[in-house]
Amino acid sequence: MISDKEKQSILVVDDSEETLELFSLRLEDHYFVTTTTSLSEARAILNQQRFHLGIIDLILPGENGLDLIQEIKQHYPYMSVIAISGQASIETAVQAMKLGADEFIVKPIRNLDLINIQVEKILQTQWLIEENKRLQNLIRKDIQTDLIIGSSPSIQNVLQKVKKISKLDATVLITGETGVGKSVFAELIHRNSLRKDKKFVSVNCGSLTETLLESILFGHKRGSFTDAVRDKVGYFQEASGGTLFLDEITETSLSFQVKLLKVLETGFFRVVGSDSDLHANIRILAASNKDLKECVRNGSFREDLYYRLNVINLHISPLRERRDDIKLLSSAFVREFCTKYAKKELIISPAVMAILLSHNWMGNIRELRNALEHAVILADHSIIQPEDLPEAILAQYQPHAPQSQQLEIPNWSEAKQEFERQFLLSTLKRSRGSLSQAARISGIARENIYKKCEKYGIDYRLYRKHDATETEEKE
Length: 475
Fold this sequence. Notes:
Blueprint lengths: L7 E6 L3 H11 L3 E6 L2 H10 L4 E5 L1 E2 L2 E2 H11 L4 E6 L4 H9 L4 E4 L6 H28 L12 H13 L6 E4 L6 H10 L8 E5 L5 H9 E2 L11 E2 L1 H4 L4 E5 L6 H13 L1 E3 L6 E3 L3 E6 L3 H6 L5 H7 L2 E4 L8 H17 L6 E2 L1 H9 L5 H15 L4 E2 L6 H4 L8 H4 L5 H20 L3 H8 L3 H11 L19
Parallel strand pairs: 1-2, 1-3, 3-6, 6-7, 8-15, 8-16, 9-12, 12-15, 17-18
Antiparallel strand pairs: 4-5, 10-11, 13-14
């Protein structure tokens, strides 16, 4: 049983005493539930008490629940809203979502578990946002963290490490897949270091030839090679007193690695074409999307340079391993691109969020950011719908129905059920029929996936590969 101090507060507004009793019975074990049958009384209650969630009927005698939703979002922005109705049209439901409702439930509610599932999901999202703010505020007392968005334990652990190492001049090696934000963490370290008032210079080693890389980093004297028509100051000098970030360090040649090792060991470098050394007053940060130990083993990366660079290691987990961050990142990217393209505020529909949470994001944050930029550009209304996502992502979740079926327009309840069924089929296919794996992929509790399979008549065992292990716990 949850203690009273831990319970969150919910306000339910509906003209049906039967509906109010239903919500109370389903929710009061875990939440403080306050009910009322009128908007005027709801307004009075809201003025006296703070609520985490409002469940609002859209059709009330002589009143419009949409008005209350709009008022809640204007005056109580921290409060989430579920809109409910047995009479509202699809247009009314869409209007509710435009005004800021987080979810829409059709009455009569035949699946009572849906109440608890939706409430838990929305309040969990709300908690993640608040927890992210709390954690960021705790860390922000000591370091500036505005570049990083994430509440997952792995990201918070990295931020704690950044807090410890930023003001020290130690060399840092940042590892992680392409697109996880390695360059962002490098800049974060610089911004919180004692060198923050000097330059932060970044170079992608993988995009340059060895000769050009040497010239860019060390500088060159006029006439030192064919195209050297004038002296050039390299990044080692340009970043003097600041930080030099060497991205994709494993893409450099062995001969260049020898020269970089000399800088790290002695603190001196030589301009190309010069006969004297200069002191390198810089902090070096490096990054790679490859396994450096494997690169050392196969001879493509020097072992001595690896240990010189790997004084401190920051490993950034891929996005698929920290799905808690997807909602926060998605909201931030939508706000960013609404501003960039001068669009009014857009809301991410539940169907789109379900896809975002389920997708594997092999391109990590970069892929997610690109997908949401695409969606913001194409969105015609105030709510981002699945069809606004890139086709490559949407194709994995769209049902492949005959053209005649695609032309039929379902009602709101049917549309949601069809999406849920197709989403479940896609998830089971990816998990090879493993309910536990499907739960991890989708973020839906394992027992709820089992219930949904029963609801839609889906035999999850048919998705198991013949060569797959049969040791999963009994379903």
